[in-house]
Amino acid sequence: MSAKQTSPRPQSAADPYFPTHGDVRYHVHRYELTLDYRPAPNRLAGAARLTCLTGPDPLADVVLDFADFRITRVLVDGRTVRWTHRAGKLRLRPARPLRPGAAFTVEVHYSGNPRPVRSEWGTLGWEELEDGSLVASQPIGAPSWYPCNDRPADKAAYQMSITAPSPYAVVANGRLLTRTTRASSTTWVYEQPAPTASYLATVQVGQYQQLQISAGPVPQTVYAPARLIGSCVHDFAHQPAMMSLFVDLFGPYPFGEYAVVVTDEELDVPVEAQGLSTFGANHVDGRRGSERLVAHELAHQWFGNSVTVADWRHIWLNEGFAKYAEWLWSERSGGRDAAAHAAMAHAKLKALPQDLVLADPGRSLMFDDRLYQRGGLVLHALRGVLGEGPFFALFREWADAHRHAVVTTADFTSLAQHHSSRPLHAFFTEWLYVGTLPPLL
Ligand SMILES: [Zn+2]
């Protein structure tokens, strides 16, 4: 697979929904995380090495988002620097400002008991389980376990080396390079070379067994507690067919592999990470009761993970596409067609308050179910306007033109216009920029 390397779009301002997260003055190009995790005391010790690039201005200080860990050592370009750490910000002051366009490295050594970030959507980031841990960071949980430039547009490659007690399996983003057991601990080294947003980096630790559900062309593996393996064999049996369908519809799978982790505990919703998704024990019932969610999480690998929002205002480009992928899987696998799903979603939304503006829902509504439903609906309405051929060509071109890059709603509407002979301005205005629900024609 040829990964087109697109540099992140220069951003001049902070994310309007999370103005205190991220620093637009520099870019992290690669994270190397060396972690040691002990599940029983929930103790994490780590070293993070970041390879970075300054922007167009000299940089007098480097600001990272990072939770309340005990920090023992901080280096910039191999030299110790002055630093402060308060209110979730680690601020480093090199002896001299870093030159514009200069490459530099940051190294942070730390330890502590990781705790999730509390938010209006529940807990985010590193979370201790009964027996292990998970990481699900969308949108702002990443600083709960490593120092980062926490904004979705700042994508980087990741290498992670995680040591844990040997009975535990450790699953992280990308390909497993090595697994080495010494005494009672095992070190797992993973590499994710594709540009990855900080919220999509993850580590999962648990007493999991491994179930390979496809050897190729995209290797697909499920990690689950022994008691759930039988149900997983049945519940994820359609995932290889979903993968083939989505490759047909959206173009090549963007990463080297796909892993699913099923935790031993219940989760509110499954969550996507780069090349990986996490499901709760409650999403596996041996009857494929959550199959639409299997499709939803897989679709995020294209829409959200490869094609990533430039900032969180554009979240419908993640969730609307993943929702529509659910409907497409249903349609193509002998279930209800997308038109029937759209009609049901439309009836449901009609009965609810119509104050949600898809292209800028505001922070408090960014995970509102109406955003998911209306996001799927606008795509279905567009399918009706463009016709089958141009609509699916647009879907595929969207995934291809912005592969491993970041996007805005305006990028989508302008690409859609290229696939339409009639002006789409009025169509997009009523679907994306106005709260009132348009009729579904
Ligand atoms: Zn989703």
UniProtKB/TrEMBL annotation:
Root EC class: hydrolase
Names of the cofactor(s): Zn(2+)
Keyword Protease annotated: yes
Pfam families: Peptidase_M1, Peptidase_M1_N
Annotated compartments: Cytoplasm
Cross-referenced PANTHER family: LEUKOTRIENE A-4 HYDROLASE
Name recorded for this polypeptide: Aminopeptidase N
Protein species of origin: Streptacidiphilus cavernicola
